[in-house]
Amino acid sequence: MTYISHARTAEEMRREVITDLNRRIDSLAQQRIAFGRGAMGKARFDGKILVLEDMLRYWTELQLVGKKTQTKAP
Asked: What is the distance between the alpha carbons of residues 31 and 42, in angstroms, rounded to a whole number?
Protein backbone atom coordinates (compact mmCIF):
# COMPACT_ATOMS: atom_id res chain seq x y z
CA MET A 1 0.00 0.00 0.00
CA THR A 2 1.27 3.47 -0.85
CA TYR A 3 0.68 6.39 1.49
CA ILE A 4 0.80 9.92 0.17
CA SER A 5 1.60 12.95 2.28
CA HIS A 6 1.39 16.55 1.18
CA ALA A 7 3.56 17.74 4.06
CA ARG A 8 6.15 20.25 2.97
CA THR A 9 8.23 20.19 6.13
CA ALA A 10 9.26 17.65 8.74
CA GLU A 11 7.09 19.46 11.31
CA GLU A 12 4.02 19.19 9.05
CA MET A 13 4.71 15.47 8.67
CA ARG A 14 5.02 15.09 12.45
CA ARG A 15 1.64 16.81 12.95
CA GLU A 16 0.12 14.58 10.26
CA VAL A 17 1.34 11.45 12.07
CA ILE A 18 0.04 12.73 15.44
CA THR A 19 -3.37 13.47 13.94
CA ASP A 20 -3.53 10.01 12.36
CA LEU A 21 -2.53 8.27 15.59
CA ASN A 22 -5.19 10.18 17.55
CA ARG A 23 -7.80 9.19 14.97
CA ARG A 24 -6.81 5.53 15.19
CA ILE A 25 -6.84 5.55 19.01
CA ASP A 26 -10.30 7.14 19.05
CA SER A 27 -11.55 4.57 16.54
CA LEU A 28 -10.25 1.64 18.62
CA ALA A 29 -11.75 3.12 21.79
CA GLN A 30 -15.15 3.28 20.08
CA GLN A 31 -14.76 -0.28 18.78
CA ARG A 32 -13.84 -1.42 22.28
CA ILE A 33 -17.12 -0.02 23.57
CA ALA A 34 -19.14 -1.58 20.76
CA PHE A 35 -17.42 -4.94 20.32
CA GLY A 36 -15.21 -5.56 23.37
CA ARG A 37 -17.33 -8.23 25.01
CA GLY A 38 -15.85 -9.61 28.20
CA ALA A 39 -12.43 -9.07 29.70
CA MET A 40 -10.55 -10.81 26.87
CA GLY A 41 -12.33 -8.80 24.18
CA LYS A 42 -11.57 -5.54 25.95
CA ALA A 43 -7.96 -6.61 26.55
CA ARG A 44 -7.38 -7.09 22.81
CA PHE A 45 -8.44 -3.51 22.15
CA ASP A 46 -6.52 -2.21 25.17
CA GLY A 47 -3.31 -3.79 23.88
CA LYS A 48 -3.68 -2.17 20.47
CA ILE A 49 -4.52 1.19 22.04
CA LEU A 50 -1.43 1.02 24.28
CA VAL A 51 0.84 0.41 21.28
CA LEU A 52 -0.62 3.41 19.46
CA GLU A 53 -0.40 5.57 22.60
CA ASP A 54 3.31 4.69 22.88
CA MET A 55 3.80 5.77 19.27
CA LEU A 56 1.80 8.94 19.92
CA ARG A 57 3.97 9.78 22.94
CA TYR A 58 7.10 9.34 20.81
CA TRP A 59 5.86 11.58 18.00
CA THR A 60 4.47 14.17 20.43
CA GLU A 61 7.75 14.44 22.34
CA LEU A 62 9.98 14.27 19.27
CA GLN A 63 11.94 17.45 18.69
CA LEU A 64 12.97 18.03 15.12
CA VAL A 65 16.31 19.78 14.93
CA GLY A 66 17.46 21.15 11.62
CA LYS A 67 20.81 20.18 10.20
CA LYS A 68 23.52 22.64 11.26
CA THR A 69 25.45 24.14 8.41
CA GLN A 70 29.04 25.16 8.70
CA THR A 71 29.96 28.66 7.66
CA LYS A 72 33.20 29.13 5.81
CA ALA A 73 35.75 31.59 7.17
CA PRO A 74 36.45 34.58 4.87
From this structure: 9
